Amino acid sequence: MPIASTTRLNVEFSPPVVRIALHNPPLNVIDVPMMREMQQALTEIETRSDIAVIVFEGDARAFSAGVDIKAHLPEQVHEMLTGFHLVIRAIVSLHKVTIAAVRGVCLGGGAELAAVCDMVYTARDASWGFPEIKLGCYPPVAAVALPALIGQKRATEMILTGRQISGDEAVAIGLANRSIRDEELDDLVRETLAELYELSPAALAHAKKAIYAWDAIHFDKGLARA
């Protein structure tokens, strides 16, 4: 069955690829309705044998400016954390290869979503960061995943200061794979997809599971504690 129409995502199937575009103008903020739609989409995609790769993207202005600030209020924070962490856990455990294509702002929960993808390609002038500390809170997913990706000291600096970095710096510290001019980003993603098309989806799934075998255990327990 196809995914039901959504209000926060544009989901485009083109087997063996599906593109999930975050769509909540103006900056693709991740609110609770988007989390529910993402859970639904990922659940269906995981069951489809004709899909091997998922590309996450935003638009020219933003991959995502992060999780809705209003959802951090006491009456919503439990539902928000539960919903968002279900999305993150689903992405981490997927048997599909995941690629994030990042333009514009990529902050907070948006940066966490991109960071847990298998491969990340970013525009050079994209703006990455975890500004939660400036709002009196912290990013649990980044607190667990970031040290493994970029090292403890760099992760600590980014989380404790909320400093933003460019796409070029995101690549330099290991948060993204490659940076490129904005207008060339789509071509870079297409080149990678062309390489993946030539490979066995089953082999890709097994290789991904092997790569993350230890980290997945660490991540699951660490996120619950964070």
Detailed description of the structure:
This protein has a 6-stranded mixed beta sheet with strand order 1-2-3-5-7-10, sandwiched between helices. 48% of the residues lie in helices and 19% in strands. Helix 3 crosses helix 4, helix 4 (140-150) packs antiparallel against helix 5 (152-161) and helix 4 runs antiparallel to helix 9. The longest helix has 20 residues, at 74-93. The model has no long low-confidence stretch (mean pLDDT 93). The radius of gyration is 16 Å and the shape is globular. It has 226 residues and is of the alpha/beta class. The termini are far apart.
Topology:
Blueprint: E1 9-14, E2 17-22, H1 32-47, E3 53-57, E4 62-64, H2 74-93, E5 97-102, E6 105-107, H3 108-115, E7 119-123, E8 127-129, H4 140-150, H5 152-161, E9 165-166, H6 167-173, E10 178-180, H7 185-197, H8 201-211, H9 213-225
Parallel strand pairs: 2-3, 3-5, 4-6, 5-7, 6-8, 7-10
Antiparallel strand pairs: 1-2, 8-9
Helix pairs in contact: 1-2, 3-4, 4-5, 4-9
Give structural attributes.
226 residues, 10 strands, alpha/beta, four-stranded mixed beta sheet
